[in-house]
Design goal:
Strand order of the largest sheet: 1-2-10-3-4-5-9-8-7-6
Low-confidence stretches: 3-22, 27-31
Order of helices and strands: EEHEHHHEEHEEHEEHHEHH
Structural class: alpha+beta
Number of strands: 10
Radius of gyration: 19 Å
Length: about 260
């Protein structure tokens, strides 16, 4: 099992006065995948994790990923460079290749959005990932389609992709938008897909979230969170003593910090 190096680093934390959103990011560049991903999840999303797989491939020098050797190299390099820390699908590349017929190497970006009432995982497809391949993959994996929603039982997912998140339980394929939605609850998935199709308000339409995310467009990886959730997820009060001391060492040179 690979373990990510535990590094305490404040790369970028932005707080909009009058708003309630913070975003942390790594490696900014010049693409607009983040804006598209923010537009794929509801406005009431509390936590969103974004991975720009197209940007990662470009950064790592992969013009095209063909076969297992290229995929393994892409995943390992992305992991080592800490580009893929927000990806839910990264670790399941091999079983997804066998089960679905596609992997993160076939995606432009990946977005996870958690709201109070549910969660979705959205995959923005590469142009060369054919629609027929997506639907064939869902059927061969064991999904059954009803009214535009594909469902698979948990035992099938666990047997084919050990350790896979339950969010793969339901799927919706939006062919014209080149998007694949997953969720662990059918009703929530239906509501998010309906919101997208009806051009309802998304996270991209929240002024404070949009303001904060704008400078981060082009990042390989980004994390967006409502302020209080960000405080909980980044707090070190329950961390081991050594980690807390490492944080203090980093903060001492900054002088006294004022609470926001």
């Amino acid at each position: 099992m690979r373990l990510r190096t535990n590094v305490i680093a404040i790369i970028a934390i932005l707080l909009i006065v009058g708003g309630a959103w913070v975003v942390s990011e790594t490696h900014p560049s010049s693409q607009s995948a983040l804006a598209e991903a923010l537009d794929s999840v509801p406005a009431n999303t509390r936590v969103a994790g974004f991975t720009d797989w197209a940007q990662i491939r470009t950064t790592l020098g992969f013009d095209k990923v063909t076969g297992k050797v290229d995929r393994d190299s892409l995943i390992n390099n992305a992991f080592e460079r800490d580009f893929s820390s927000r990806s839910l699908l990264e670790k399941f590349t091999d079983p997804m290749s066998k089960g679905f017929g596609w992997t993160v190497a076939d995606l432009r970006w990946e977005m996870y959005g958690q709201a109070s009432k549910g969660a979705v995982l959205v995959a923005g497809m590469n142009d060369d990932l054919k629609s027929g391949k997506v639907t064939r993959g869902l059927r061969s994996f064991g999904y059954k389609e009803s009214a535009g929603i594909w469902k698979v039982d948990d035992a099938t997912v666990a047997g084919s992709i050990p350790g896979a998140p339950t969010i793969l339980r339901f799927a919706s394929y939006l062919k014209n938008d080149r998007l694949i939605y997953f969720s662990d609850h059918r009703a929530y998935l239906e509501s998010v897909v309906a919101l997208h199709r009806d051009h309802g308000k998304t996270l991209a339409g929240v002024p404070s979230a949009r303001q904060v995310a704008e400078p981060l467009i082009g990042s390989q990886s980004a994390f967006v969170s409502v302020g209080r959730d960000a405080c909980l997820s980044t707090g070190l009060s329950k961390s081991p003593a050594g980690v807390r001391e490492q944080a203090r060492s980093l903060l001492r040179p900054l002088g006294k910090l004022a609470p926001m």
